[in-house]
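The following block was generated as part of the benchmark described in Methods. Ligand: 0O2.
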Amino acid sequence: MNIREYLKQKKDEVRSEHASQAKLDNFIDKNSDGISTLFTYYECALMEVETKFKVLNQEYSLIHDRNPIESIKTRLKTVDSVVDKVQKYGVPLTLESIEKNINDIAGVRVICSFPDDIYTLAECLLEQDDVTLIQKKDYIENPKPSGYRSLHLIISIPIYLEHKKRDMKVEVQFRTIAMDFWASLEHNLRYKNDIPEELGAELAEELLECANISSSLDVRMQRVRKRLSEDTSEMDDIIDEALWM
Ligand code: 0O2
């Protein structure tokens, strides 16, 4: 490419950035009420889903004497990143299209103690009759090439407003503490643009190895916990029997 072609390319890039910024400003100006209403509905959906998990955690600890959930995080995507996704998918920039095509505006991340807890909680959530499963991606069974592990569900749940009921989509990501720790570190690498290519590749390889090590650690710790609880329940049976004698 000669210098003339290079300058023309740069000029086109700047023009196209300005055009998309103008498009975004125009969309926000024209739809500010609609955007804030829609985002408030997503916020309500987040509260509903978070409460569902808090209830499940409470009941589980009553029955099994331990909490399967370490923490719950919720987040709403920013308008800018929703618009980025609209552009990435090549769908129209309208409120209807955003609601139809973008599934992860509302996100809940459930951090569990052990891998089995993830599947137990996901099953309990999906058994609830106001929850509809839209999509499931099991990156624990099938990790991403990067080493990323997590169970992703897109669900639809109703929120009850003054005079109407509205179904809203929420993305739920289930991870163990180890999976979450790994994903945060890898996220930093993914969004750091100033790393030399060679170092980036080296770190990605190192992270893949870490993902495999931490996955086998999750499995081993789960095995230890199971053996511990089996022993404890055996001991409980012995005590029960002794009390009846
Ligand atoms: P944020 O801010 O975390 O929400 P899609 O979102 O459907 O266009 P994809 O890859 O099919 O694209 O979606 P997928 O696989 O369900 O993953 C979406 C989210 O999972 C990402 O959200 C991340 O949070 C997380 N994720 C997926 N893959 C990786 C990975 O390799 N490393 C890490 N650290 N996180 C991952 P967003 O939209 O990127 O951003």
